[in-house]
Amino acid sequence: MKLLLAIVIILVVTVLGSRLTFLNRRLSMGFRSLLLTGTEYIFIGVLLGGMGLNVLDTDAIAKMEPFLVFGLCWIGFLFGLQFKVRQLKKLPGFYFTISAGQALATFLFVSAAMYVVFQYYFDLPETVLLMVAVTLGSAASCTAQSSLGIVSKNYRFGNRRLLDLMRYVSGIDGFYALVFFALALGILPGGETAPFDLYASLKWFFASLAMGIIPALILISLSRVRFSSQEFFVFLIGTVMFCGGLSYQIRYSPLIAGLVCGLVTANFCRHHLRALSEVLQAEKPIYIILLLLLGASWNFKLGFSLIITGVYFLVRVLGKFTGTFAASRVFKPDFHVPAGLGLGLISEGGLAVAIIINFKLLYPAIGDSLITVIILAVFLNELLSPWLILFQFEKKERVSIHTRPIPVYNKKEHKEKEKEQTHGPDTGSTEGR
Amino acid sequence: MALVVYANPFGLPETVSPTLVLGFMLLAAYCIGFILEQFGLPRITGYIFAGLFLGPYFLNFYSNEAVKSLGFLNSLALAFIAFCAGGELQVGNLKNKLKSILFLVAGQTIVVFLGVTLVVVAISGFIPFMQGYDIAGKIAISSIFGVIAVARSPSSTIAVISETKAEGDYTDIVLSVTIAKDVVIIVFFAVVISISEVLLRGQGSFSLFFLPGLLLEITAAFVLGFLLGKLIIFLIDKVKIEFPVVITAVGFLVIKFSHLFGDYLNDIHNIHLNLEPLLICMAAGFTVQNFSTYGHTFLDRMDNVSLPIYIGFFAITGASINVDFLKTAWFLGLIIVIVRTVMLYAASYISGRLSCDPPRIYKNTWLGFITQAGVSLGLLAEVARRLPEIGIPIQTILIAAITLNQVIGPVAFKYALFKVGEAGINKK
User: Chain B residues with CB-CB distance to A under 8 A?
Assistant: First the structure.
């Protein structure tokens, strides 16, 4: 009965949520950064979970496990689908290098800081501490696009190329984050009780690749024959389920396997764009459900988790700032980049959440402590990030749509312009990321 | 998959993850369905075979437990199929076929029931578990065989129609009769099982007091279905992309809540009121089709996601077939299948002649009614619950018969749709 009630609530929240959140609606920035960035689902989840009404209790969450596996693989797959090498080659190289620089710096800073802090608080073997620290580092290195979405809906900017740079950097760095996460999981592939073993790690690495490549090859082979849209839908769902289930069956990451599967599909399947458009449709509901489940499985305890969160937040900001500053000075774009650009990239959301949920799925005992850190950090980052993004643009370069009406010459043309400004030349998705 | 299951190179848990089983089933069943289609067989036969041969009794890629863990998908799929079945019924189309439909429903119910019952009574001397009963007992048991032989499978009918894109008089008649028989069988089964209980146990007296209760159950199901249909009409405009998911989930909840509600009334208030969830969903689909202008939108949107649901449902159905039962009772099952098919032919032929249908229809209608699946199995479970002393042997024989019908039925129906020239008409 409880599970049924939980399903009803999740369904209602998801359907209503995907209508309300991440929309192109113009709402005041303060309101949106507080309410409609996706973080609200974490709190709805908290309300439904063990710390609230206990509708989504541990048992109900455990029964959702197949969905979690599917959802995580779906997200990885979606991410991989956006990385078609031939398309990416057309983009300026500095997008990638700046993105990699800030992601790497953030990853290293946060991993190192967390490793040091954990040694004081956790009585766990060194390798386990390293794995947990590296996982947090990987979650820290990615940037969500939700805040950029909010800002671009409320302002028009003179320096559009800067906004594009931020969009691409935040669109691409998720890939690096997943690579770092793969590194983290590769440390102890046999479980938290096993010692570090290079052979096992290498085996894990190659098996992870295989777990993604095999389903992708199946998808590519199936889509060689003439098929209807319904059949393609079956191929996609079947491939993602098979890929996620296969990797989870052998205690590998559905997120990483999905990424590999998506990458192979994007680069070797003729129908990758069709796949992308189908997969994108389910993105919002899946993110919302993941956020709800994250909130529901939160078991907040006052004390060290607040300290860890504080350190995590500060070091992450430092990493973003330093990494972006250094990378943008070394790989100089042909336009002005403010020194504090990294501060505009602190938004944290869906992918970080997915990484932590995936980690908890594989290492439930340790995963719990990371949830608090991520939830608090996501909330804090989402709250500050729109203002820090605005801070990157000089006052004369930005115009609030609320203070100055935009002249409308032609309704259709205006709509197209607005759409272009809102979405920009994005790599595909996603505001929730 | 074989590598993971057999070689287990990673030394990992023996229970296969439900996500992996479902993903594998979807892809494998699709491929086998596609291959069989090249040989002129319906895809759903391929899905059933895939579930059966990859499952616990043959290649053993997944265990019985793994299949059971996917049981909730059956509820989801049944709800989805029931919505579609109701949505396919358009009063406007049915008006001029009403006579044929009524004759077929009545004819098949009477002829198939009487035919199978009489044959089972006649051969009861060769059926070991029936030998200890007197003639009243034998008639009672035989009538259970008879009533279950009347049941049909709306899910297979819908799936074959959807796969062959069939449209026309023949399709409408088969679909309408199947759905109408779904309602009739529930009432008829309740009457027969109550009489059988009295005859077998020889105690108490038969009373018809349960009939008002039964009518109340059916009326309540229709009323709830109508209200649910109104809710769906409201949702069609509000929910776009997620519509089929929402509707299927709503159907799933209807199924679960009606079971819980029935249990609650039974356990707490000692009231036996079972709301039939599939009737509710069918009535809801019917309401959307006939009491709004959204009938086509509703069916189109459901159709967009129907394929994975059908594949999953029939593959799970195939995987759930108990081959041990089939081995022990295949011969008796085969006799029931033959008798039932002959009776179906006779009933359809006579009813068609009486209702003045064109020959192309009345000569082929029987082919559309062979398949049996979920409803029959549900009724068997009820037999086992109410008559535990004969439940297991009856189940064994009838599951064998249902399994055979499940395999033969879709092939026959697809053949008939092509023969009457209605396959491939509904391009939409």
Answer: 1, 4, 10, 12-13, 16-24, 26-27, 30-31, 34, 239, 241-242, 245-246, 249, 252-253, 256-257, 260, 303-308, 311
